Structures are given as structure tokens and as C-alpha cells.
Amino acid sequence: MTEVIGAGLAGSEAAWALAERGVEVALIEQKPARRSPAHSSDALCELVCSNSLKSDDVFGNACGLLKEEMRRLGSLTMEAAAHTRVPAGGALAVDRNEFSAYVTHKLRQHPKIRIVCREQTSLPEAGIVATGPLTDGALYAAIEARFGGGLHFYDATAPVVTAESVDLAAAFTADRYGRGTGDYVNCPMTKEEYERFVTELLAAEKVTLKEFEKREIFEGCMPVEVMASRGRDALRFGTFKPVGLEDGIGRRPYAVLQLRRENAEGSLLGLVGCQTNLRFGEQKRVFSLIPALRNAEFVRYGVMHRNTFLDAPRVLNADFSVKDAPMLFFAGQITGVEGYVESAMSGMLAGIHLWRKLQGKEPLVPSDACVMGALSRYVAAENRHFQPMNANYGILRGMDVRDKKQKKRLLAERALAEAEAFRAALDGE
Fold it and tell me: CA 177, CA 47: separation in Å to the nearest integer?
């Protein structure tokens, strides 16, 4: 029986990819006996930071394109997202509890998957390790001993408030540029309100970090207070940008904080882009300065936590196998891919690659013409300053087209053709 260690996004996809191809899988997960500090549910495939899987625009966004590539390969998490999505404009957001429940049910019902509750304390000789960015304890020690240590960065989560506590008289509902069905609650600020917010945000008491922690925060999860420290208008040109948003009488605010549904009912709203390391009391005080949040009830505060990733170019091949142990694979954020979708993608591909090796076949890695292939190759490419990577157009094979909008569509069309060719090659063997 093939072992997959860890039942997060990557482990769930890996187990599914193997089982769907006829492989007996033991999916080893430490919950519910033990949880990491970031987890709060006993369900598998728990979404920890945000309920958004980012843009669903296949022809205008690299992560949207990656999701479509995964759908064409039978991704379980993309199936779950389709069944549990909540309105979020052009983004693919889900009810996080329903999403996890869907994946958990599918895995438990699969005849080829057996879920084993235990804490893994050693590295196996074969199988897939998908224990996530908070890998610790004996397993972390084993990884450190085998590969000479891990690399670390720190990321942060955003607060969540109850929808009924938001002052809708001081907010308006709209999607940026009118795309979507009015899924975001927008909390506008005047210049004076924004200036006061930034002043108090920068002065607020934060959880003390060590110096190396401050240097290693991942840009994609930058705490809002760190972003604000880069200039008083930094938030207004980033997280709080008002571009493409107008209130009910055609006015564009000076700055806007957007709230996005955290569940299908819309009873919980997340503060978009407001990952933070402020102390809990300070979060309530500072965010309540925004008029629409003056009486907000906070049901979850933002936190920072450690992420661990391998020096993948030194350790891994492009099929996510270990260079000196061809039947041992890693998947998920521990490999240096960054983001929910990217993590799931690596698990799906690791499962496919291991299935091929179990059949005695050579690795078949998608080309860098598609996002999943480009990310796979990025992880394994020589890089003395390796850092986690999201899906983006910059890692795709180049294309000489001047018109940016046309270029994105052409890149997407080429990527989907490559994904289809990869699927056909798998199916034909």
C-alpha cells in the first residue's frame, strides 16, 4: 500500500490522483489526535488562511489558468470548489467548512483510500510527504537531518467579522469594475479617515518577531502594517485601492477596504488583504476606526505563523521526487510552491508521477508552456536564492506578442493545449 503523509490540499490531491488510477493508498493524517497551531477543524483539506482560491479568470490571470489546467486532469479540490463556491466577483471563493467536508467525504468513500490517524515521525523510503508548511516535531527533525535543514518564511492571516455587525449605511456593495454580481462589501474612507487609520496602524502594538522573521515574510502574505510602513499611500495603491469602485451615487472613495464572504450564507466576512501581526486587542481597535467597522464583531483575529519549505532545487526533481530517492516525493508548500491552488497542483502531479513510477515508467513532466509545468520546473531549476513561488505569467515560456491582453489569451490557449496533450499522453499509456 502506498503512503501519502498529510491530508491537506496537496495530500488530498495526491491520494485522489493515485486512487483514481487504481493504487491502494494509506492517507496518514495526525488530526484529530493532534493539530498544528494554525488548524481548528478535524476535517481533511482544511483552508487555514483565506477562503479564496484567487481569480477564476482563465484567460487573464495565471492562477485562474492553473485552475482550468487542473480541472482537465480531474482535480478533486477544483471539483470541491465548484460545489461549495460562494459569490466573490471574479474570484473563486468557497465556504471553507463545506469545502473541507466535501473533500473529506470523497476521500473517506473512495474504495482505494484508507485514512490512518497517526503522527508521522520518520521519513519513508517511498511515498509522498505532504505535511505542509507547519511540519514540525520528529518528522521535521528527520527532514532536517536528511536534507541539511529547511528554509523558513512567515505569513499571516486576516481577521473575520460577522456580517450583521458591519454598518451597511457606511458601506456599499459592488465588484471592482462592475465584474461580478455585487459580491464584495466595500468600506470607504475619506482622506482624513484613511490618514487616521494609517497613523494608528503604524503605531499599534505588534506581536514581537525576531529579526530574521521580519526579513522572511512572503510578499504574497505581507501584513497590512508592514505594507503601510512602505509609505502612507502604499495601502491606497494596493490593498485599499479605490480604482474601479464607485458608491451608489457615482463617487469614487479616497480608499476602500473590501470584505468578502467567508461562508455560503454570507454571515461571516473576511477583511481582504488585511493579514496582520497586530495584537488581538489592537486589531479590534485599529480596524474599528474604519466607519463601516465601528461596531464590528471579530470572530477571528489575524495571526502569523511559520512556514517551512525545502531548498527544492538542491533536493527535488521536476516531478517532485527526491534526487537521491526516486520513489520518495514531496508535495505542497513544503516544496516551495506558494498558495492553495499551487499546493493542490503539486499534490496532484506528485500522485500522477508516483503512479507512473509504480508502473515502471519514466517521468513525464508537463512543459513550461503551461502553469503546472512551469511551476514544477521552477521548483527544480538551479537557484541559489530560492524563494516560494505563486502561479504567474513570468515563469511561463515566453511568447513574442506586444499586446498584453492578447498575449495573456494566447498564453492561456497554448497552456490549455499543453494540458490536454499531457492528459492525452497519460491516458494513452
Answer: 28
Computed over every residue of the chain, the mean pLDDT equals: 90
**321-322: strand order across its sheet:** 113-117, 25-29, 2-5, 127-129, 325-330, 321-322
φ/ψ region of 328 (left if φ > 0, alpha if ψ in -120 to 50, else beta) reads beta
Task: List, for residues 21-32, the tens digit of each pLDDT value.
Answer: 999 999 999 877
pTM for the whole structure: 0.79
Dihedral Cα 332, 338, 341, 344, nearest 10 deg: 0
Between CA 142 and CA 149 the distance in angstroms is 9
* Length, in residues, of the chain: 429
Name the phi and psi angles at 3, rounded to 5.
-95, 135
pLDDT tens, 197-239?
Answer: 999 999 999 886 554 445 455 666 789 999 999 999 999 999 9
Contacts of 381 (CB under 8 A, 6+ apart): 313
Domains in the chain, CATH or no CATH each? 2-155+306-427 (3.50.50.60), 160-302 (2.40.30.260)
